[in-house]
Design brief:
Blueprint: E1 3-11, H1 15-27, E2 33-38, H2 43-49, H3 57-61, E3 66-71, H4 79-85, H5 87-93, E4 98-104, E5 122-128, E6 138-141, E7 149-152, H6 158-175, E8 180-185, H7 193-205, E9 212-217, H8 218-227, E10 234-237, H9 239-252, E11 260-264, E12 272-276, H10 293-305, H11 309-325, H12 339-350
Parallel strand pairs: 1-2, 1-3, 3-12, 5-10, 8-9, 8-10
Antiparallel strand pairs: 4-5, 4-11, 6-7, 11-12
The structure holds 3-isopropylmalic acid and manganese (II) ion (MN).
Length: 351
């Protein structure tokens, strides 16, 4: 029987609460089995030690089969410090270049969009996850003077751009849904990086004549995610545009609490990382209000990536059944149950 060693980084805020339910779902499977090792990296750890990740920490995590991640973000520490010292270094160090964010409207959830029912929205955003607008390049001059200057440079490499676009086409083939890839840019205003992206997209699409293509500007795409989400299949975007679009795709499927995310290193030379799209939501800490389903779906993505498609399907089925039955759900989707009660219901269904 397969066994996996999972590095668990619960992190901040509601991270530990949702990770707990994700672990429960995985442990409810009769196979495969798991060993979870907790890494206490978080804002609290930073307050105690001055670091988010201890010396050599990433080398240690490199030996695990996957990383199961909760959230990072703290009321007292500026976000650019928490994020640039914990989650972004993990994505970059392990070259998790393909951020996969499915947006699926489950039967039984009310979309804020009128007239949409289960399955009407079924898209996946492929977000470039290692460079682009998130490249850590820039600087500040003459700080705290009237002459202050801030420069933040986006970096688009051929290697980085081509591989995420190629992954999007491969994903469209794997999904066998609409066989379509939509590329998102802003090449009308950003004449270097985004025109370059368009050119790479046009080159790569030649290798996939079976896949329909479409190119949209980010502003129009944001509108179309609201106006005609049912037309999308695979959507590929740069780091920042993908970040923005995936908050829209999360809300149109009824709740941020239903949106999972995978940060994949498709070469499998380093571990991939699986997390909910929602963040630390510290206003919800300890109240049992947070929806664990995004994290449970991230757990399903994790084991599917590890090759356990049957076990992944079991978890997905449990989630779909829980939502369709509409009895035990958290307040974000109109229920009155707690985080733990939802997790228990998923465990019961898996078992
Ligand atoms: C996300 C988050 C992160 C991002 C933050 C926390 C750095 O918004 O995973 O979407 O922008 O990538
Ligand atoms: Mn985001």
């Amino acid at each position: 029987m397969s066994h996996y060693n999972i590095a668990v980084i619960s992190g901040d805020g509601v991270g530990p609460e949702v990770i707990n339910e994700g672990k429960k779902a995985l442990q409810a499977l009769s196979a495969p089995t798991f060993t979870f090792t907790d890494f206490g990296w978080s804002s609290d750890y930073y307050r105690q030690t001055g670091r988010f990740i201890p010396e050599g920490g990433l080398d240690e995590v490199a030996n695990y089969d996957a990383i199961f991640f909760g959230a990072v973000g703290d009321a007292e520490i500026q976000d650019h410090i928490t994020l640039n010292n914990l989650i972004l270094p993990i994505r970059r160090r392990f070259d998790q270049y393909a951020c996969v964010r499915p947006g699926y409207l489950y039967d039984g959830v009310q979309s804020p969009l009128v007239g949409k029912s289960g399955g009407d929205i079924d898209l996946v955003v492929l977000r470039e996850n290692t460079e682009g607008e998130y490249a850590d390049v820039g600087g500040r001059l003459y700080q705290h003077t009237n002459q202050e200057v801030a420069v933040q440079t986006a970096v688009f490499t051929r290697h980085g751009t081509e591989r995420i676009i190629r992954y999007a086409f491969e994903e469209a083939r794997r999904r066998q849904k609409k066989n379509k890839v939509t590329s998102i840019t802003k090449s009308n205003a950003q004449g270097y990086s985004m025109v370059f992206w368009d050119e790479v997209f046009q080159e790569v699409e030649k290798d996939y004549p079976d896949i329909e293509t479409e190119s949209l500007l980010i502003d129009a795409a944001a509108m179309d995610f609201v106006r005609r989400p049912e037309d999308f299949d695979v959507v590929v975007a740069s780091n920042l545009f993908g970040d923005i679009l995936t908050d829209i795709s999360a809300v149109i499927i009824g709740s941020m609490g239903l949106a999972p995310s995978a940060n994949l290193n498709p070469s499998r030379q380093s571990p991939s990382m699986f997390e909910p799209v929602h963040g630390s939501a510290f206003e919800l800490i300890g109240k049992g209000l947070v929806n664990p389903l995004a994290t449970i779906l991230a757990a399903a993505m994790m084991i599917e990536f590890l090759g356990e498609s049957d076990a992944g399907a079991l978890i997905r089925q449990a989630v779909a059944d829980n939502i369709r039955e509409n009895k035990i759900r958290t307040p974000d989707i109109g229920g009155a149950s707690s985080t733990t009660e939802v997790g228990d219901d998923i465990v019961r269904r898996i078992g």
